[in-house]
Every structure is written in structure tokens, then in C-alpha cells.
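Chain A, query sequence.
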Amino acid sequence: MQKYLSILDCFGTLIQQSQETISITLTNGIITDRKFITVSGCNARVFYNGAWGMAYSNNSNNIENLVSQAINNAKLLSSQIHMPQINLTLDKGIVYENVYTGFRNVKEAHLLDIARLYSKYISNTYTDLENYKVSAWIDWTEKHLVATNGAQLYTLTPKTVLHVYMSKNGDFCERSFCSHEGISFLENTYVTICKAIDELYTHLRRKEDAIFINDTCTLCILAPRMASKIIHETVGHHAEGDFILDSFPYSTFVRTPSLLPTLNIVDFAHQAFGKECPIPIYIDDEGSVACDAHLIKNGQVCEGMTNRETATLLKAGLTGNARSMDYLHEPLVRMRNTALLPAEDSVEEMIASIEDGYYLVDGRDGSGDINGEFFYEVSIAYHIKNGKICESLKDMVVWGDTAIFLKSISMIGNDFEWHIDDCTKRQRIYLASGAPTIKAFLGLGML
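Chain A, predicted structure.
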């Protein structure tokens, strides 16, 4: 592939990529959906005279013409828009192989057996459900990348997901379990996942007596899954280089005040806490070496996440956060493994410190705008009264301002949990978020 870039006198990348997905859904034990999808192709992308040009095709036999087309697209855009002249931030490319094996030969029958295993556990254990659904899917992405700076990358990355949905008396709870370890993840963690399903059912039963709340602003305890999702919307997106540029000079991230000294947030590239991250990125989709980005360090804003262009325009370090959904899309500045690091407070101490507030366990669907305002739907929550967890709450929404929310964080737990989710910033892409339990101030109201 490298030979096709030899005609370039500017920076460029070439990616060949194929993706295969197998999915199956059981509703009340009966197969209701099954899919087998394959997508493959390649793209060329070049930076010429201040402009990016890209071309893609599902025909990998036409790479030379693809590179030429990308050059022409960049030249055309540069001539029409009169792009400013910038010297793109470059690094010394490295060759990296990150290969996961033993995954591509998975058959639908094997996946169906696993989906039936969990479906049978739910049907045998919980006979009072109105409906339950188990969806299991596996996919792998094989990618070859080369860049004019000498970077080369080959990856065969699996992703395995199990989604569980249960409903009773008009209420429902759901949760996904996801890993890059391959289908063995669903086999080897059967006991752990069944325990999580038991916890999910307990939340569902408690929803039978759930109460409504009035709109309010108050102190809340956010469990790790809820905390990580809010951090994703507040700090994560606002620390992305394109977000910073679009809102400059009033960037929410830049104007964040001094915070709790024990508050540390890092977007990890591939290693965290002595282990490989849930979404390991070694070289990004622009051929940049992926480095950890320390977003907030000891309560102070430190650095943002960048790709080559935003690093140049912001005069910042290159962190290797350029990621694309597939060969049909251009790389954007995206999070990888964004984590609020644990501190020393215990969950019990946090809950005991609340006289009248709320315990937010999990949620679904949220967003944040460029001005720093955010909201998130909460699907599992409880009232805290005199330091004790009390009634379950009906589904609600939380909202706030990023700077005010971060400033209000007063306690950070000594627990921690990763979870993998997809993010739809112009492209749907998987990323990981992590956090301990935290205590903070939020607005709440009914859906």
C-alpha cells in the first residue's frame, strides 16, 4: 500500500478496511431478528494547501486512481475556499501490529447458543416478566493503514455485545455488556453477567412503587455508570479539539474554573491502571501515535484531545484522537477511553452525607451543546432521605451547565467502572467511559 502514496508531495493516508457483523435477537425466547452484514473498501485522504481531500471506493483494485482523486478533491476545495496556509502538525510515524485472533471463525449457531443461554436464565429465574429480550452480536474490523510519515498499522479488532431488556407493569430496564475480547467474553463472564441481570431485575421490581418528583436542583450521588455518561457529555465533548475551536474564545473547556484538587480526567489511548483499555487505540486514523490526553489534572484544565489539524490551529500537542466510523467517513476528533480517576471517598460516606437528595444509578440518551449546557435521561434512580436510599423514582431527566456541574463535584469515590457505549457525533462510533461514584449538584425533572 505504501507505494501508492509515493506520488504525494504532501501529507496523506491510505486505509483498507473490512467489517463483518453477526447479530441475533430473542424476544421471550423466540428468534425475532437475525443479521449478517459485511462492508469493505478503502479510502485515500490528503492534506494539500490548507485543505483536506478524500476519496473512497469499495473496489480495492483501484487504489492509485483513488489517491489521485483525493489530491484533486483537496486542490479543488483549496482553490474555491481559499484555505489559510498552515503547516500540518506531523509526528514520526511508527509501524505497529495489534492483532487479535481466534474470532473471525465464529458462526451464527455459536452466537445463537449464547443468546439462548442468557434467555433461558431470565425465563427460568424470573417468571413474572411481561417481556424480555436478549440481543447478542459480534463484529470485527480489519484495518490496514499507511501514511506518508511512515506510519503503518494492521489491526483485527473484535467487539462483542450482549443487550438485555426486561419489562413489567409498563416499566422496563435494560443494560448492555460489551468487550473487545471476542465471543469468549460472553462465555467466560456468564456468572458475572447473570449477577448483573439479577441486579437489573431488582431495579425493575422496585420501579413498581416508584414515585414522581417535582423539578428541582439539588445534591446527587452519581453511581459509576451514570457519572461516566455525564462526564462524557460535559468534559469529554468539550475537550475535543474541534469543539474548542468552534466555540473559541468562549470554549466551555477553556473557561472551566479551578476544581476539586482530587479531580483528574484522562482520555487514555490504550493502557490504564496497568491494563489494556476497553477500546485500545495505538495509532489513530490519521497515522498519528496515540497518546494519553490529560484533560483535567489536580482540578486544573490541562490539555484537549486533538487530531493533526486541531493540534496545529490550537498550537497544542498531538494526541492521536482522529477516529472514523468506517472507510466511508473522514476521521473526527473523538474520545477513546475517557475516565474520571477514582479518589478516596467511600460510597457509603457519600450517601450518608445527603440529607435530602437523589441516587442516580444509570441512564440512556443525552447530549451537550456547544454552550456547555447538557441533559441526560435517567432510567434508574432513588430518593435519598437522611443518608438512606429510599423510594425508587420514575424515569426522569437531569440537566446542568458544564462549568457549574464540575465546580459542584465535592466527593469522588474509591470505586471505578468502565463501560463501552456508542456516540453519535456525526458518526456512530464505539468508545469507553469510566468513573467512580461522585457527589455533585444537578437539576432534575420528570420526562
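The radius of gyration is 23 Å. Residues 263 and 299 are 5 Å apart (CA to CA).
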